[in-house]
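Pipeline run #58 for the internal structure catalog. This entry was flagged by the ingest filter as a single-chain record with no existing model, so it goes straight to prediction. Upstream metadata was stripped on purpose; only the residue string is passed forward. Reviewer on rotation: M.T. Logging verbosity set to normal.
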Amino acid sequence: MLQPILSICIATYNRGKFIGETLDSILGQPLQDVEIVVVDGASPDNTPKVMASYLSAHPEIRYFREQENSGVDRDYDKAVAYAKGEYCWLMTDDDLLRPGAVSRVLENIEGSPDLVIVNAEVRNFDFSKVLQARILDITGDREYGAEDGENFFSDAASYLSFIGGVVVRRDLWLHRDRSPYFGSLFIHIGVIFQHPPIKKTRVIADPFIAIRYGNAMWTSRSFEIWMFKWPQLIWSFKDFSDHAKALVYPREPWRDIKKLVFFRATGGYTPAEYRRLLREKVNGTSRLLPWAIAMTPASVVNFFASLYCILWNRKARSGMYDLSRCAHATWASRLGARILNV
């Protein structure tokens, strides 16, 4: 293939159990003018063996194994650099493409947009149940110009915490500043929302990606990421108003007691996180409640959080799924999972 139109770029680490299923979901689709680029960040598991079995049968796959792990941001950046396509789809290594996904993306890159966003659905770990039918709550495709940057930011930035829905023109990626976002876990957000605004973006409303929920590599760091790293990134962009940023994510989400309770209920917020991340940010009596939540046994908080979901918030299917699968799950969370069918 001399010049593919689309490169599906996958950065992977320790996903030998999952990446085969991801590749199968791609390879089962028409791939004329499409290549698959996999960058392996020195996985110590069986990823090289799994990839070897695919490379022997599928010349459209190009596999690059790094000598050491340099982090997900750098690995995606390397994948784009290795790619030959005019566009790069930054696909994840454990989720699935639904039938017709590649064809729809190829249709949408006609006319040379800078960016295409592909909607996704959220499923449980084995894909047997739908937790959320579509993350972007839209029913028709959309298009945004540079003058619509504020609307695009407020509409889509929250969804774009998931990198797998991003299809970006390769030369735009390479000509934008990426190094400040190495280590952020969200390099694509920095590329997309830095100045100057992207001139032409298309959003595909149909959910052509199935997300394997609860399998993120950063689960153990989720409190720090969602309470600090993600909001700091969102609020760093100077092109958008505070109102638009607030629509995406609160500036100081750790002040939300419900969020602290949920993270404690699932084990993400502990006395160690309180001491390391929160203690110096709160003063006087305002320390009392965050401290008390951190010190309450996680199973107790899990029990009452589960009852809350069962009785008053049955739409929180993903939250109930988290409560029922964590190490601190109780009979209430397991009952809630059955009632909500998650």
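catalog note: Strands lie at 6-12, 34-40, 61-65, 87-91, 96-97, 115-123, 130-132, 142-145, 166-169, 200-212.
catalog note: The mean pLDDT is 95.
status: ready for reviewer M.T.
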